[in-house]
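seq as requested:
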Amino acid sequence: MENVLRSTRITLEMIKWEHSIFALPFALTGAMLAAHGWPSLKVLALILVCMVAARSAAMAFNRLVDARLDAGNPRTAMRAIPAGQLSPGFVAAFTLVASGVFVLGAALLNRLTLECAPLALAVVLAYSYMKRFTRWSHLVLGLALGIAPAAAWIAVRGNLAPSILLLTAIVILWVGGFDVLYACQDLDYDRKVGLYSVPARYGLRGAFWIARSMHLIMAVLLFLLLRLFGLGEIALAGMCLVVLLLAYEHMIVSPRDLSRMNAAFFTLNGIISVVFFVAVAADILHGHRAP
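struct tokens:
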């Protein structure tokens, strides 16, 4: 039992479960847009369980599939599996358990969430193989997170409205853009072992311009989202702050200096997702209180 607990702790550290904050605010946003306020406590709790379980399964599966590649990359060689801290068998079992928790949570929501659960799981797990086939794997990662608001909408309403897919597109471009930047750190290794990525194909300068373009389109879609859902000044102020934070993210990293990549990737993007959610949630709740 002690070994199982230790391995579970190391697994949670390996998958950085706390980084669920990237997608969780967008899932909560989708839920609040669907409910025109807070959904029921049961639905909210099950959405949280499904989100954390799906992400945990995806990250553990990614570490399992990429263990050999991680071992050869100086940046990732000390991850738990190549470092010998975890066995592949334990990580595979953890992935299965997390996947099971996700499906169970979906089943407890409604019929459509259960029917969509295998497809959602296939998307989040398939990402781990994408760098072997396409340089646009960054957008597949974006899709893996981008289905969160649409899934939350289904969890609340039991159907899928085309309007929420605009938020999915926003998340795809947001995640895709910052993953392109993050992948710049592995440009030489990706080229060496034949992995596909935007930086490996277009170089650092090209990758930065592609990431900027993704985030510029995302910024435009943010303001379209406000109009589509009839959101007001609070949400508008939040979207302006999100755009400013994105601009700052692109200011602190450049093709000549990647030293602040972790600050841009983890800290700023976590703040961006929280600011987005708080702005939309406050606007929705303020609208409910307005006379």
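The chain is about 80% helix and 0% strand.
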